[in-house]
C-alpha cells in the first residue's frame, strides 16, 4: 500500500473527522475553531487518490506550558478500514516535520484515552489527569518532553 501525505484544505478534513471522531453526531461538530485561519495547516494521508487520514496543526497555546510559541495537533483521524497500516504514524511524523520546518515549538494535543498508547510509542507523555470533553469522551493532555 503506497501512502503519501499532502497539504489539504479544512473542508477536506470534515468527512474523515465525521466518520472517525464524530460518528453519529452532526457534521457541524467537525468544524473546529481555527480551521480556516491562514496559519492553520491541514495534512491528508492518501492511498492512491483516496483520502484516508487527516491531522490539523493550529497556533494555539496551552496554559500548562511556558513556551510562547506552541502548536496544537487536533482532529487526527484515520478511516477505520485503513487503521493499523502505519498511516497515523506517518501523519504524526509529517505534522512534526511541518512544525519543525518553521520553528522549534511546543507541540501538544488532547488525546482520546484509547489513543494514548499510540502517542506514547511516539514518545509523547500524558500531562495531568484524564478529563472529559462533553459529548466526545475522556482525554489526556499530551506533549513530548523537550
List keywords for this structure.
146 residues, globular, alpha+beta
Question: How is this structure best described in words?
Answer:
It contains 3 helices and 7 strands. The chain is an alpha+beta fold. It has a 7-stranded mixed β-sheet, sandwiched between helices. The longest helix is centred in the middle third of the chain and has 16 residues, at 87-102.
Q: Would you summarize the structure shown here?
A:
The protein has 146 residues and is of the alpha+beta class.
Oligomer: single chain
Alpha-beta classification: alpha+beta
Would you list the SSEs in sequence order as H and E? EHEEEHEHEE
Query: How would a textbook summarize the main sheet?
Result: 7 strands, mixed
The count of DSSP E runs of length 2 or more, i.e. the number of strands, is 7
- The residue ranges in which pLDDT falls below 50 over 5 or more consecutive positions are none
